[in-house]
Each structure stands twice: as structure tokens, then as C-alpha cells.
Amino acid sequence: MARERTQLFRDVIDGNIPKRVPVCVSFSIEFAIQYAGKNLAEAQWDTGQLEEIFDQICRDFYSDLLPVNAFRFPSFYKLLGARNFVMSSNGFLQHPEVEGLLQEEYDDFIASPYNCIIEKILPRLYTELDTDAATRALALAKAFKAFHDEMGNAVMIYGRLNQKYGYADINLFAGFTEAPFDFVADQLRGFKGISTDIRRVPDKVEAAVDAATPLMIKAGLQPFASKYNATFIPLHMAPFMRTKDFERFYWPSFKKLVDALAEAGHPSYLFVEHDWMRYLDHLYELPAGTIMRFEYGDPKLVKEKLGDKHIISGFYPVALLKTGTRQQCIDKAKEIIDILAPGGRYIFDFDKVPITLDSLNVENARAVLDYVAANAGY
Amino acid sequence: MNTKYYKTWEQYLAEHPEIDEKQAQVMKPKMQGYEDMMFSFIMFLLM
What's the rounded Cα separation, in Å, for the pair A353 and A349? Predict the structure, then answer.
């Protein structure tokens, strides 16, 4: 089964028409824990429970790729006293608005982003790194150990589940990085800060984004190049920007990043968050075969503008899985497949990762996934 | 990368002339690997 499933994705990536539309859906760790009836906080700390929890998702929801992917665990954030990822009382790891870089520190960041990260940004966002030298050295050592323990455990679980359920040997999360503008915006300046900076200190924003670009490229490189293993890049800020600002501050460095990864043999897997319909002509310019999972927008327009060059995914509205009838949900899948599947270069996926158990009706989700697996043949 | 917190193997080797060529061959992947692991971790903390 794994060989057949792998071939589906290889055909899509190689530009051939596969036997049927491959299905790639993913559920959040929170969804999986709630689905298994476990305590959210306990299971994220006691990660020995995760194999059984993830197994239930694999057992009950059809996908051709492993349908779970967790990479944020509370242990290393807590050890560092994180202010940017904090577990709430109900067990959700939340990301409050933070400002790791002050506006008056742009010049330091531009001169040496990595020095600035180590000396100023990390201590501001991680309280245990804002301590005396010995204490912060020990805090970082503990967190580094915890990070690799948690990731090592997760990778072992993924490997066993891949074997057990015969998932495709394709990894769309083999690397992880961000668009340089998003990196500067998300945790360095914050949404409010970057929006102000674009108007008040535009040259500094532009220079900071340029300075961050080599770090983002390095972060996105994988140990081994393969056209079947992608670097995941979630895209955030562009839909909230004016087009002329996007073209000046966002696009040049982002294109440079995706081009550099492609030149190194790493395709990019973009989560095109929110509505990017204004920017489809820009997206077309990215290296051929870039995988783009769309959240909102017009699938017909995307197919028409990007379908001959890139691989399209997403668009299936998770919201409908909560509010629609079983038949409405299946009909929606048919509608999206009819638009996006012709000619190949399409992977079925939801428009977003279901975060909580109550974000959808599980019976509808199962019905849709089973329908696509059984009926989306070419 | 313009920083004092990340060293390529070549930079490290230049600061440690006591390391002979034979030793350097076996040290390089391990030392560079840990340097890159720490870089990846630091960047992950901000993504």
C-alpha cells in the first residue's frame, strides 16, 4: 500500500497524472488528544501517550500521508520561560502577541541578525535567558535536550505509524522556515509593530527583512536534497498588506528564499494562509512544482492561473464539516475535485488543520475522506 | 553569516591549530552538526 500511495505523490510532483487524487490531511495534536478522550495538558507533557493517541487518528481518518504532525511541545518552552508560546489553563499552547525586537533596535538587527537574536530578542521572549550567564547556559542546555528528546520521540512514533498504516514515503515537512517578512513581523515586531514600522521606518523594515533572508534560507535547508521532501513555509502577513507594500517588503525576499531552496534541491510546501487571490501572478513566478495549500479564495482562478506550473492543495472548508449535512460535505468535495483535479498537480486537503474536536463533525470528515479515496480516480 | 555565535568548521579550525589533519576529518561532521543543530533550535524558538 505504501508503494502505491508513494507513487500517487511522486506522479503529482513529477507532473504526471496519478492513478487517483492523493489525500493529505492533518489533524492538530490538540484535536488528536481530544479525539482520544485524553487530558490536553497531561498528554502534551507525558508524550509517551502520543503514539496511542495518534494511532486513533490514523485508524479512523483516511489519508495517504501520516495525518498527524506535532512539533510544539510545552517542555522546552516552559524550561525557557517562554512568553511567545504559553500553555493556557485549558491545555492549549497559545501564541500571544509579543515584541522581541524594539523599533530602536532595527539597526542592531540589520548589522547582525543572529547576534541580535542571541543578545536581545531571545532574552526578551524567554525569561530564563534573561538571567545571569550560568543560569541561562543551563536553561538553554536543558531546553535543547528537551527539544531533541521530544522531537526524537515524535519521529520514532511517526516512523512506526507510517509502517503500520502504509503511508506514502513523502515528507512535506522535511524542513521548516518562514518568509523573511513574516519572521520579522510575527515574533520580532508583532502585527501592530510591523504595521506601524512600514509607515514610519520603511527603509529599516526593508533592510531588516533582507538581513533575515540568509537565516531563513539556512533554516529551510534539509540535510538531504530530494524533490519528494519539501520545506514547509506557512505564510502569514501578505493578505493584510497593501499590494504596493507586499511588492516592496514581502515578495522580493520571499521569492529569494523559495528560489534558493529550489536551487538547493528542496521544493517548498506553502500554506497560503487567508486569501492570496491578489497575488496569484506573483505566486506563478515561484519555481515550478511549488506545492501551495490554499485556505480561502477562488479555486477556479487558482487552477487557471497556477495549475499548469504548481501543485495545488487545500480549499476544502473545514467549517462545512461542522455545519453541513453528510451529502453537502461530499458534494463540496466533488465540486472542488472537479475544479482542481483535471490534468493532475492536485492533492486533496482541507483549507486548514482542524484544531479542536468541536471544529468539525467527525462523521462528516470521515465520509469526505473515504469518498475522495474511493472516487477521485483519474 | 556575520555573527560571533555561529562558526563554520573552517572558522573553528582556524582558531584551533592544535587539531591535526587526521583528527579534523573525523571531527568535522560532528562539530559542524552540533553547530547547525543549535542554529536550528535557536531559529525554531522564533518561528
Answer: 9
